[in-house]
Amino acid sequence: MRWGLVPAWAESPDVGVKMINARAETLTERRSYRGLVKSAAGRCLVIADGFYEWAPASTETPKQPWRFTVDGGKPFAFAGLCTTWQPAEGPALRSLTVITTEPNSIVKPIHDRMPAILADQDLRDAWLDQTLTANQAVELLGPLEAGRIEKTRVSRAVGNPRNEGPSLLVDEQAGLF
User: Fold this and answer.
1) Using CA of residue 60, residue 65, residue 70, residue 73, what is the dihedral sign?
2) Strand partners for 98
3) Order of all β-strands in the sheet with 64-70
4) How many CA atoms lie within 13 A of 19 on its CB side?
5) CA 31 to CA 119: how far, in whole Å?
6) CATH number at residue 6
7) What tens digit of pLDDT does each residue of 13-47 get?
8) Is residue 9 within 8 Å of 30, Cβ to Cβ?
């Protein structure tokens, strides 16, 4: 799937650039999301082993990326929404958006939002449950408890598509390269 939701009603797939995440608090109100959150077919899991946020820059320091992991680095899932966009000609495009929520105390000093994390199997099962209403689905999307998240300062090269590899997970300022 392509990251950046392209709603079925969109005229162009370019709209997906603006829809890489969706606020949990407004899922049932927004035209692009309310139909998707109502249906298990519109809800999905995005598997990850971490996520990144950038601390704001100041006059003395540039933006600093941080990596957040869950339960000591175990894989987990973000809550997501997905759909299919069908152009007038050509193949269908499957796309998704990651849902965000208020940050917990670990993420809040770095960013004002965090992904809605479904770290436990019962929450993942519930998110995909066909009998769940939209409001019940939204109730699952609070911030993950702070004690389950760790943050690590990482290389400023993170986020540049030309850069890749495990060396990005080490903070160059700490002299660990």
Assistant:
1) negative
2) 21, 80
3) 51-55, 64-70, 149-153
4) 23
5) 28
6) 3.90.1680.10
7) 888 788 999 999 999 999 999 999 999 999 999 99
8) no
N- to C-terminal Cα distance for the chain? Answer: 34
Helix H or strand E segment including 52: strand 51-55
CB 20 within 8 Å of CB 4: yes
Phi, psi of 172 (to 5 degrees): -65, -25
pLDDT digits over 137-146, tens only? 999 999 999 9
CB 114 within 8 A of CB 21: no
pLDDT for res 177: 35
Give me 132's structure tokens.
């769940």
Count of structural domains, the chain: 1
CA angle 20, 21, 26 (to 5 degrees): 140
Write the pLDDT tens digit of every residue in 60-118: 878 899 999 999 999 999 999 999 999 888 899 999 999 999 999 999 999 999 999 99
What is the domain extent for residue 121? 2-174
